[in-house]
Amino acid sequence: MTEQSTTSNTTPVEPDPFGTAPVGAPEAGASFAADAEPDELFDTQLRAVAHDMREQMQPPGELIEQTLAAARRAEGAQSAAQPVAATMTVAPQGAPVSPAPVPRTHTPRTKKRRRGRVIGFIGTAAAAAAAVLVIVGSVAVYQSTSSPVLTSGVIAADGIITPGSYDDIYASLQAQAFGSVGEGVVSTDVAPLLNAEGGGSDSAEAPSADSARAEVFESGTPQLRAEATATGADETSGSYSQTNTQVEGVDEADIVKTDGKHIYSLSTRYNEILITRADGRDTEELARISMGSSSVEDLYVNEGRLVVLFHGNTDDESASSSGYFVETSLAAVAIYEVSDPSNPELLNVLAQDGYLNTSRLVDGILYVASVHWIYSNSCEPGDPASFVPNLYTSVDMAELHDDSATAEPFAVEDIRILPDFERAAYTVLTAIAVDSAERESEISVLGSTDTVYMNADNLFLAAAIYDYGSALTHITRVALNQGSLDVAASTSFEGTLLNQFSLDEYRGYLRVAATVIEDRYEPSGRGDDGERFWSGSTTSNSLLIFDSSLRLTGSIEDLAPGERIYSARFTGDVGYMVTFRETDPLFSLDLSDPQNPRVMDALKIPGFSQYLHPYADGLLLGLGQDASSSGAMTGYLKLAVFDVSDPFAVREADKQLVDASYSEALNNHKAVLIDAEKNLIGFSVETEMRYDSSDVLYRYESLSYYLIYGYDRDTGFFERAAIELPEEYEPARALYLDDYLYLVNGDNIGVFSLDTLEEITWVRL
Length: 765
Hints:
- The protein contains four helices and 49 strands.
- It is mainly beta.
- The strands form eleven sheets. The chain has a seven-stranded antiparallel β-sheet with strand order 4-22-21-18-17-16-15, with no helix packed on it. Strands 5-6-29-28-27-26 form a six-stranded antiparallel β-sheet, with no helix packed on it.
- A hairpin with a 5-residue loop joins strand 32 and strand 33 (about 550-560).
- The relative contact order is 0.12.
């Protein structure tokens, strides 16, 4: 399989208008009156303020002052005719967000009641949106003051809304997602704002002076240190590998798991969970769990519990007058007692509305994130279960498919509304104690999620917002509090994320790697009507750092213009970012000072890495694709080791080209087995063989292998094994237990000597 192996040598933050309370806003705890139905005057004046903001880019304090003035004028005009209906409180940043006491009005209901519901759009008026821009360097961070019509509730300084009633939620959906009311987010370019000393954001030019290098070392900027090997152990079993994850101590679900004695794997062919005793040559199947018609996604194993994540479906169709049908998807969790693996016992099934986005497991608490879409034809005022997410508890698996599951709508106090959601979708988060198989808490955010990053303390939800040729990312921090979920902060910034590795929190600061895309429009030349046409787009890349309140503290901008991010990895005070167009610039970034991040080096080599992994002290492993000096793909996969011991002089220490057309590991880090101590770098590949045939000019055959490489600092990469997989269209995972390496491929488990990688046996399950 080996083709060849070669060896080769900010700016200080401007004062945040939301630091304590909005400029010009009432003192914390003050309130102003708002009617349940705003009149035309109130709505028109707020729209005018929003328009002026876009036209004149007024400072945030002035905008807020005008908005409040409009509200006061509207209030005065209405007070003579009708009484005050309720109050809406503006809370300062960081203050507890708690609405007026609202009774938990969970209303159990059966899904069958949705069938045949018909409803049209509801034209509920809403207050206009106006976004406040907090500017650091030349990065625009969008903190919105837009809000839907509320009869009660709390709006935090960063715009997160805690509704006071289901009516508030219904009105928000109708106004911002289904209606035409609302201006959306601001996407106006902002000129650089320099500090008093004339400083600005760092450019992409890397410092090269010896004095700069010495300064970094003297200031204690760390070099790359290898992350701890993902292994586990107990008194009765030796070392064993676990799933390759992003954050140490935060487990991620996968199709194969082990507890150090047994292997739990997903059989996609029969939709079953296979439990196997891992015992070298005597490896044998102990039990299997049929999942019926449920579509299994992933597994966890934790302290005698097997957790199965699967996709459910109520098969519920609600007809509308326009002929559309709505089908409800469920993200479900089945928890089994497996202290006796040969006799698994189902403890509980918990489900939530939405399709499964991702999950994490830390300290015995499972966090499940799903995205639940709401459709206008199924919304019914007065029926919360039709427009808020529902939870399902202690249900039989069959109930998730036969339309008899009982739904419990989210309580009002467990719902938050993002300031600028543009999709009629909720992100549903639940925390489940695996030991008790019960929910600890839940929270739902009105606003969808594309990317999730989580560590032991916080979970970050990110969603791209596209608006007329530009793209923003809205990000929300959810504090975990050992299973007690709470939405803590929110903001938006220019650019989009690649994946979960674009985010990393370290010492209370969130670091973000983003690609900024700007569309170009040219005059059409058809007259003076101002018509323009799209003439292409430009890209650049940014590194942004936010504090715990998601206020921007520092940034690096305009990295690699014309390219986009292909991979990113953060380790301690150092960040790494790979961009690509013709060559592969690997940027090393000094993040030790959150106010002044800087580029230390930019190594340019052919090809690009799609996955980066700290391999050993001073070494960074990259897996990606090879390319020519002009940027043309060569058709080879590429392994690379970068020497990053000197962050100002990063070099490619060695590379290995692999004759393969594809690897799951390029897009799924959990498909990689990496252990520097045991010298294991393993991943599956697909190859294409082309040869002449008597009846066809060219004939193609696809083969699948699991490749295992080792790395030596002196000699570079070397191939340790190339194992042909028995089921080429099934994913493969390798793991080690004690003295054996096990290769799981579909319903087959290969057993190999961990020392020599010689084949011992294959077990067909």
